[in-house]
């Protein structure tokens, strides 16, 4: 007699699913250990999504056992003067015996038409797949900068200080909250203040090839602000043992000293709001440390 078809269910991940999902991700992504995924899901547990969207994402289960998962990091962001909802698809894995059901996870995750979806760390072999799902590339590569070399003999006079200190000059209150939230997630959150106003910056410490210390730009209002404040920021980071900054870019960044790498770390989106370069706030890089 043929074996009965497995009973497959796709649903939101609940708090009680965190431990089995951690085990599943550790099997699916063996390059990262079990402790990494525990910490990543802990980061998601502290993040509150917009109403109606999942806290962790979705899972596939067969016979009550998780056999696939797709994490989803949802947040409300600002697009100019308007609020927009953005969701980062992350860590998609399905056990080999259930791969034919994998599209269920994606179709469930992409069901909200007014949401902009991001895929910011796709593996090269998945690029054709996500393009077939309707995603468009908005970032072609990265610029690896050495910002401490900027303005060694003059330049913009700015004061760099920790986000816990409220700037004494003009700034946006919502950005103070965003900086503090990212600092709690392990990011470096800074203000750069001129006599006129303060500019917010968030960086995620990381090591390229597990050796080279870098800071990935997670948030700034505009990459031009990074160029303007590059020297003071670079020397602030260099004193903490971080000489390099990774910036999303589609070409070499004028005004920064470094190297452009086309095709490295491309990023995709689908939905009504094209993401801008210099804004990876509330993505897997910030929340989970991917």
Describe it.
23% of the residues lie in helices and 35% in strands. By secondary structure, it is α+β, with helices and mostly antiparallel strands. The chain folds into two domains: 8-114, Aminopeptidase (3-Layer(aba) Sandwich); 141-266, Aminopeptidase, CATH 3.40.630. A twelve-stranded mixed β-sheet has the order 1-2-3-4-5-12-6-11-10-9-8-7, sandwiched between helices. α1 (18-28) packs across α2 (34-45).
As laid out across the biggest beta sheet, the strand order is 1-2-3-4-5-12-6-11-10-9-8-7
Which fold name is given in CATH as the topology of the largest domain?
Aminopeptidase
Number of helices: 8
- Which structural class do you get from the secondary structure elements? alpha+beta
Q: Note the overall shape.
A: elongated
Over the alpha carbons, how many angstroms does the gyration radius reach? 20 Å
The major sheet is characterized as: 12 strands, mixed
Number of domains: 2
Strand content: 35-45%
Gap between N and C termini, in Å? 46 Å
Mind telling me which CATH architecture of the largest domain this is? 3-Layer(aba) Sandwich
**Unreliable parts:** none
Level-1 CATH class name of the largest domain = Alpha Beta
